């Protein structure tokens, strides 16, 4: 039972354009969400988070939007840079665990 | 500068031969986790320690064991690795409590021959 789903395994965008990565969740009790970024042969690193009391959180080029009624969140990267090419995971804590989505491979082409 | 260190980065073992993966942290975090990640899949939590309290996930096979001799170190023991256990194993720590922001190591890529 995958409670956090990222339906797009990959996304390719041009440098300078916007990247939009999507994530859906099924558990209405989830109230905090995190995005992690993972380069090959490295562990995931924390990128940005959002609490359910907000519908938007911004940090530089990265903005996360939360739509609680749709149980959907998205990560916007603008402008996208080649160094943003990585796998992006959304995640949410539930009890004693952090539940991850399957990840989306973002490729930013120069 | 490294905060969560996993050794080795790559581990090759034989089918059925016990293997131990190690993780150390310099963050003094009270929670340590072990995740298994297979290609194109979500990282899957195997177990975690809250201080010395061990918390096993219900679907973690008995083949996987863990030890945490002190705050800084945590080990993952695979007693009889099968081909299906080939994966990236990620160690992570947190301090806020369980389920909050995690700090990951670089992972150990395990191959089973």
Question: Explain this structure to me?
Answer:
The complex is a heterodimer of chains A (110) and B (113). By secondary structure, chain A is mainly β. Chain A has strands spanning 4-5, 10-14, 19-25, 32-38, 45-51, 56-59, 62-67, 72-77, 86-94, 97-100, 104-109. In chain A, strands 2, 4, 5, 9, 10 and 11 form a six-stranded mixed β-sheet that branches. A five-stranded antiparallel β-sheet of chain A has the order 1-3-8-7-6, with no helix packed on it. In chain A, a hairpin with a 6-residue loop joins strand 4 (32-38) and strand 5 (45-51). Chain B is mostly beta strands. In chain B, the strands form two sheets. In chain B, strands 2, 4, 5, 6, 9, 10 and 11 form a seven-stranded mixed β-sheet that branches. Chain B has a four-stranded antiparallel β-sheet with strand order 1-3-8-7, with no helix packed on it. The relative contact order of chain B is 0.34. In chain B, a hairpin with a 2-residue loop joins strand 5 and strand 6. Chain B has one domain: Immunoglobulins (Immunoglobulin-like), CATH 2.60.40. In chain B, 0% of the residues lie in helices and 51% in strands. Chain B has strands at residues 4-7, 10-13, 19-25, 31-37, 44-50, 53-56, 64-67, 73-78, 87-94, 103-104, 108-112. The interface between A and B is medium-sized, with 25 and 27 residues.
Low-confidence spans of chain B: none
> The CATH topology of chain B, please?
Immunoglobulin-like
Shape of chain B: globular
| CATH architect. name of chain A | Sandwich
Q: What class, by secondary structure content of chain A?
A: mainly beta
**How many structural domains of chain A?**
1
Rounded to an integer in angstroms, the radius of gyration calculated over CA atoms of chain B is: 13 Å
Total strands of chain B:
11
Percentage of residues in strands of chain B: over 45%
Mean pLDDT, all residues of chain B: 92
How many helices of chain B in DSSP terms? 0
């Amino acid at each position: 039972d995958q409670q956090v789903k990222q339906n797009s395994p990959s996304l390719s965008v041009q440098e300078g354009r916007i990247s939009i990565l999507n994530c859906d969740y099924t558990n209405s009790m989830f109230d905090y969400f995190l995005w992690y970024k993972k380069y090959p042969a490295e562990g995931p690193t924390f990128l940005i988070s959002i609490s359910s009391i907000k519908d938007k959180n911004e940090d530089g080029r990265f903005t996360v939007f939360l739509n609680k009624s749709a149980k959907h969140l998205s990560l916007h990267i603008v402008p996208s840079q080649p160094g943003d090419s990585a796998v992006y995971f959304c995640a949410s804590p539930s009890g004693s665990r952090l539940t991850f989505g399957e990840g989306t491979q973002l490729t930013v082409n120069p | 500068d490294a905060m969560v260190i996993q050794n080795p980065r790559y581990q090759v073992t034989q089918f059925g031969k016990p293997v131990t993966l190690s993780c150390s942290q310099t963050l003094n975090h009270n929670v340590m986790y072990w995740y298994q990640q297979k290609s194109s899949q979500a990282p899957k939590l195997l177990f975690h320690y809250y201080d010395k309290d061990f918390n096993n996930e219900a679907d973690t096979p008995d083949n996987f064991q863990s030890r945490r001799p002190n705050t800084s170190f945590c080990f993952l023991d695979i007693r009889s690795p099968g081909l299906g256990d080939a994966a990236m194993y990620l160690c992570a720590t947190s301090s806020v409590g369980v389920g909050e922001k995690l700090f990951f190591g670089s992972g150990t890529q395990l191959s089973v021959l």
